[in-house]
Structures are given as structure tokens and as C-alpha cells.
Amino acid sequence: MGRQCECVHCFKEEWSARAALAHNMALFDGNHIRVDILPGGDDSKRTLFVENLPFDVKDEELYQLFRGSNKTEGSVEAIHVIRDPNSTLGKGVAYVLFKTMQAARCIVSKQDMKIRDCPLRLSHAKPVDTTPEACKKMHVPKHEDVLMTGI
User: Domain range for residue 76?
Assistant: First the structure.
């Protein structure tokens, strides 16, 4: 099995970013690539960073915990457990995106949330700066510097 890596690419024009979506799940160097567009706006206000999770936690466990906590059916929009790419074990942290800022605020204010007797540490996620200036600081290649062969 190949190694997993992540790459962030900032496009100057929205049309070129949308065109890149056509390559989602394309085979590249023996691996399928995932192409996605970050949503506009600041999702950090709706996203919680969750710490102290069991390493074998399942996304569904988190979904059930957070969905039931604020009594709002369907308030969880997405869950991303950070996992080791080789073992697929969790690293003890996750991001939970809620549909509203109010749902995220309700959950983050709780001090006694647990999963399998592990007390959770909850905080709002820090915003990600995707401006062209920030991309330059991250040494992200320009569109014309990236050559995708075999796709």
C-alpha cells in the first residue's frame, strides 16, 4: 500500500480550481487522488477540535455523541478523525463541522462530554488562511508549476 500525503494548492482563478475537480479520484502514480475545494467563508466558527479520543474511535461514534448532545437532529455536517496513514488508527483528535455556529457553541460550552469514559477537550478550530499570501508562506506551488502526467 502506498504512502498517504496531502497537498494544498491555491489557484489564482476560481474557474481553474473548479476544472481541477475533474481529476478527483484519478489514478496518479499508483494512487487515487482526492481533489476538493475549500468552502468560502470561515468554517472555524462551526468547527470544533476534539482531543483525547480513543485511538480506535469510529466516525459514527462521534456523530452519535454530538448529534444527541445538542438535541438538534442533523446538526453535524462532517466529521474528520485524524488517522495514521499506515495503521489507520486515530491520533486521538478529530474535527467536527456543525451546520450552524449555534450548534458548535452549544457543544463547546459543555465541560463534561465523554466518549467511552474518556473526558473530551473541546475547542473551536483555528481558521485556515487560504489567501495567496498565506499559500506563498506555505511554499505551495503555483498552478503552472504543477505537472500532472498520466491523468
Answer: 43-124
Q: Residue 41 phi/psi, 5° resolution? A: 85, 180
* Confidence band for 43, pLDDT divided at 50, 70 and 90: confident
Is 50 exceeded by the pLDDT of residue 10?
Answer: yes
C-alpha 115/C-alpha 94 separation (Å) is: 13
pTM of the model: 0.61
Residues 118 and 140 both lie in one domain: no
57 and 118 in one domain? yes
Number of domains in the chain: 2
CA gap 77, 74 in Å, rounded: 7
Same domain membership, residue 138 and residue 83? no
- 18 and 72 share a domain? no
Query: Where does the pLDDT of residue 6 fall: very low under 50, low under 70, confident under 90, or very high at 90 and above?
Result: low
Residues 98, 56, single domain; the answer is yes
Question: Residue 60: its pLDDT value, please?
Answer: 83
